[in-house]
């Protein structure tokens, strides 16, 4: 099928996630806590994703707010004497200057249809990240702009309205099974899963258009018009 437009997740799809920085933060908390938790216990206590899932509408909080809040809770939980503000600085810096995957620039250059970035991130951070990588998009949708996070439908609906194309003719591209794959499927939008880590595909993800190891493989699929 020839798609009329493309929706693109950003972190984990076009640029690498902040996993290395998160890992360093977790190790730092574990080593500085007098309770000597394991890294796994620190990760399990950090409720950032869960807090995002309940943040929408009047209860919406930005990623920066939720990151500081939940990190502070982790530090309190493990009686760790570190500052959430200081710990967050490298994370915030990476959000604004993330590392692009090697094939991202050529993939973007190959697209011949309108595209829209759809990202669970604050607007200023996304603008800075795009500028850092030298990318410009006519359309972008953020969690902050919609006051909700994927996989809720608000961001997908906003992107569809911006592009002005029928949702069945738009392809959403993302790496997150929950935020991207489940979110797009629930919103009735075809979705391509970027599975860089060879994760197992759950049964509920059967409606996928396809599963791809990177954007280069997806680009070949789109070029063939499958």
The average pLDDT is 96
Strand order of the largest sheet: 3-2-1-4-5-6
CATH homologous superfamily identity of the largest domain: HAD superfamily/HAD-like
Strand content: 5-15%
What is the overall silhouette? elongated
Give the biggest beta sheet.
6 strands, parallel
- What is the CATH architecture assignment of the largest domain? 3-Layer(aba) Sandwich
Proportion in helices: 40-55%
In quaternary terms, these chains amount to single chain
Number of domains: 2
Low-confidence stretches: none
Secondary-structure-based class equals alpha/beta
N-to-C order of helices and strands? EHHHHHHEHEHHEHEEH
How many individual helices?
Answer: 11
- Compute the number of strand runs: 6
- Within the CATH hierarchy, at the fold level, what is the topology of the largest domain? Rossmann fold
CATH class designation of the largest domain: Alpha Beta
Terminus-to-terminus distance: 5 Å
Summarize this structure as a short list of keywords or feature phrases.
alpha/beta, elongated, 11 helices, 6-stranded parallel β-sheet, 47% helix, Rossmann fold, 2 domains, single chain, 226 residues, 11% strand
Task: Please outline the helices and strands.
Blueprint: E1 5-8, H1 19-32, H2 39-45, H3 48-53, H4 63-77, H5 84-96, H6 104-110, E2 115-119, H7 123-133, E3 139-142, H8 143-146, H9 154-163, E4 170-174, H10 177-186, E5 191-194, E6 210-212, H11 215-224
Parallel strand pairs: 1-2, 1-4, 2-3, 4-5, 5-6
